[in-house]
Design goal:
The complex is a heterodimer. By secondary structure, chain A is of the alpha/beta class. Chain A contains 9 helices and 12 strands. Chain B is of the alpha/beta class. In chain B, about 25% of the residues lie in helices and about 35% in strands. Classes of the chains: A alpha/beta, B alpha/beta. The interface of A and B includes residues 105 and 141 of A.
Chain lengths: ~250, ~475
């Protein structure tokens, strides 16, 4: 699905990713954990194509294409989805209109006809149930006046609507209560298939009680420094990150 | 990153010029350049006007000569030379059109380019818009006349109204915008050549949108049109106005006067989509749009102005409401877009005279390029206007670091039982918002269009359906590639 090799990226003069390697195959869920400032959100932003970051070295292969050579919207149309840590509000633009525009742009890219109103509404009904999103939220302005939990659920709703190949969840669990966390995780689990993959970026172990990862990676100082199974997350929860820092120092 | 760069976008935009910048090759009957009494007599004679009309014009001219051009607006421009303007230009075929078939084919072509297809409208039942088309200074064609006549509705060119309905014109013209009101209103009163006239009889609800399309075609001409809309007691009308002009290097002057009269229990909705040629990207050429628009409300009546302003090099325009009757309502919804070197100083005046009068002002300014966009508004509550209310909201959206947004709200309140609210915001179009859209697969162009249209939604929602679609497209075209 995606193969990241020796990725270096900086913002301004500050290098944040310092030779990151990561391979994710179809059907897998990978969790990326790490202390504050390790570069977790930078990784998500760089993969999605945010302009503030400059890639100085390395390659990213996404389904056979050179991801770094694609514009932000082309990456999205190729099937890369980022669930934002802080979803953006767009006043006056309904969620429905927003998603319909997105779906049709993606379809146009694939040389498909625009989705019919009937099919689109059926899709909205089906997918909003999946994340227990109130139908009213679907017709409200994008994220405007949504609570923190609603915004995150809306991200997963959008993900369900756009059906990406690779979804990156950037601290989707932050600020969620246990019920919202369960709903979000349920959504992710139900969307999981043999053909797609998910990268879950998180600070805490608790999300991984609901979304069971195949691999857990520790990101520290711009690199993946440790990789393990689900038990690694538990170990991190218990011991914090200091032991990894100590290990690296030796 | 292989993103579509600003430069490429800018280049595309240069190539994609003002869509309406064509001229139509029609013989025109013109007055010589300049302004004096003889020219005014010439215009009046050309229009075969009654004596009282000529006198009205000459009086206005005398007043105008003593007046000075206003300079309080937040705009900078080279003052027009009033002796260098052609005050009368009419397509040569000036006979009245008995039917659509009589209209000059060149003219029909022009209308088609503008998207006014009356032929289609005639064929399609269900499209309910009657159109009056004013090119340069003369009203060319009015559709659906007979159908309206059955209801007693008069919808015709202003000149025709002077001939056919002198009593109505004489009684109402200048009652809302007096000749002496301001420099440009006086000029207009002296030299206006045509415009639209509309009268809705008592208790009649006009079943279709009435629309006037204004077009400046000839070079060196000014356009001075006059519109008078009278809604008699208990009637309703929705009126639309669209404007375009060809691309020229010179600045052309447009100085219109619009008067609305809503008698007791009547309602007038007046919508404008103004897209006069804005000048090129270096600020060369473009229309000077100096317009006086005002309406007066009787008892329980309502006037709503909606405007989408994307054109003109300089705009100076304040559609206003005099809320004279008790319980009357005034509304003003505006989107003003400026790009490149455009300047707009626009807003409204809400004059509360009657008791329980209510006014709402929603103004959305969008500045791009190196343009300046100002909201100027006056809310005036007079001492007898007990329990009056006003709500104003003025938002500004900045697209670049080089443009400016300014707000000049004036409030004068002489009645302590009144309530006035004013809200204002200024924001820069969010790179985060654009990134969010891009990440969902939406192109930058569509993203800006979505965001801007969302920002203007409250105003666009006020427009009739057909116009709202046109306005949305216009906003997108005006702002393409303007984020910086």
């Amino acid at each position: 699905m995606i193969e990241i090799k020796n990725l270096h990226a900086k913002i301004g003069d500050k290098e944040i990713l310092k030779g990151l390697n990561l391979t994710v195959k179809a059907g897998e869920i990978h969790a990326i954990m790490g202390p504050n400032g390790a570069g977790k959100s930078t990784l998500a932003s760089v993969l999605a194509g945010r302009e503030d970051y400059e890639v100085t070295e390395g390659t990213v292969d996404f389904e056979g294409a050179d991801l770094l050579d694609l514009a932000t919207e082309e990456r999205a149309r190729e099937g890369l989805f980022l669930a934002f840590q802080y979803p953006i509000e767009i006043p006056g633009v309904s969620n429905i209109n927003f998603l319909r525009t997105a779906i049709n742009e993606i379809r146009e890219y694939r040389k498909e006809d625009p989705i019919s109103a009937k099919d689109f509404m059926a899709l909205v009904r089906e997918k909003s149930k999946l994340v227990e999103l109130d139908a009213k939220l679907a017709s409200r302005s994008v994220n405007e006046g949504f609570s923190g939990g609603e915004k995150k659920r809306n991200e997963i709703f959008q993900m369900a609507m756009l059906n990406p190949k690779l979804a990156i969840l950037d601290e989707t669990d932050s600020g969620l209560d246990i019920d919202a966390l369960r709903v979000v995780a349920n959504g992710v689990n139900m969307l999981k298939s043999e053909n797609n993959a998910t990268i879950v970026i998180t600070h805490y172990q608790r999300l991984l009680d609901y979304i069971i990862p195949d691999f857990v990676h520790v990101l520290y100082d711009g690199k993946i420094v440790k990789t393990g199974g689900k038990e690694l997350a538990l170990e991190l929860e218990e011991k914090g990150y200091d032991w990894i820092k100590a290990e690296l120092a030796n | 990153m292989a993103n579509y760069t600003e430069d490429e976008l800018a280049q595309d935009l240069e190539n994609q010029e003002y869509k309406f910048g064509f001229t139509t090759d029609i013989d025109a009957d013109q007055a010589p350049k300049g302004l004096n009494e003889d020219i005014i007599r010439f215009i009046s004679a050309k229009k075969d006007e009654p004596e009282w009309m000529l006198e009205h014009r000459l009086e206005a001219f005398e007043m105008w000569k003593k007046m000075e051009e206003p300079n309080w607006a937040h705009v900078k421009y080279k003052k027009p030379n009033f002796q260098d303007i052609i005050y009368y230009s009419a397509p040569k075929q000036t006979k009245k059109y008995e039917s659509w078939d009589d209209v000059d084919p060149e003219m029909k072509e022009t209308m088609k380019k503008l998207g006014i297809s009356m032929e289609e409208q005639k064929r399609l039942t269900g499209t309910n818009i009657a159109v009056d088309f004013v090119m340069d200074s003369v009203s060319v064609a009015t559709s659906f006349k007979s159908k309206l006549k059955e209801l007693g509705i008069i919808f015709c060119s202003f000149s025709e109204a002077v001939q056919e309905h002198p009593e109505l014109v004489r009684k109402h013209m200048g009652t809302v915008v007096p000749t002496s009101d301001n420099f440009y209103a006086a000029l207009n009163s002296a030299v206006f050549t045509d415009g639209s006239f509309c009268y809705i009889p008592k208790g009649v609800r006009c079943p279709m949108e009435l629309s006037t399309y204004f077009r400046i075609n000839e070079g060196g001409t000014g356009q001075f049109e006059r519109t008078l809309v009278i809604a008699d007691e208990g009637s309703y009308v929705s009126y639309l106005e669209g404007c375009t002009a060809p691309q020229r290097d010179e600045n052309q002057l447009h100085a219109a006067v619009v008067e609305l009269i809503a008698m007791d229990n009547a309602e007038i909705k007046y919508s404008t989509v103004q897209n006069w040629y804005p000048g090129d990207k270096n600020g060369l050429g473009g229309i000077f749009n100096f317009v006086t628009k005002r309406g007066i409300c009787g008892l329980n009546s309502k006037i709503a102005w909606t405007q989408v302003e994307t054109g003109s090099a300089v705009t100076w325009k304040y559609p206003s409401c005099i809320l004279k009757g008790d319980n009357s309502i005034g509304e003003f919804y505006s989107v003003a877009v400026t790009n490149n070197y455009q300047q707009a100083d626009t807003g409204t005046k809400m004059i509360h005279l009657g008791k329980n009068t209510k006014s709402t002002i929603i103004s959305k300014g969008i500045s791009a390029g190196k343009s300046h966009n100002s909201y100027r508004g006056l809310v005036q509550i007079h001492k007898n206007a007990t329990n009056s209310r006003n709500f104003s909201q003025c938002d500004s959206l900045l697209m670049t670091d080089e443009c400016g947004a300014h707000t000049f709200p004036y409030i004068e309140c002489k009645n302590s039982s009144s309530k006035i609210e004013h809200e204002a915001t200024t924001s820069k179009i969010g790179e985060d918002q654009i990134f969010y859209c891009l990440q969902r697969g939406i192109s930058e162009e569509k993203a800006i269009s979505l965001i801007v249209n969302g920002y203007c939604k409250e105003v666009l929602n006020q427009l009739p359906m057909e116009f709202a679609v046109e306005a949305q497209k216009l906003l997108t075209i005006s702002l393409e590639g303007s984020v910086g």
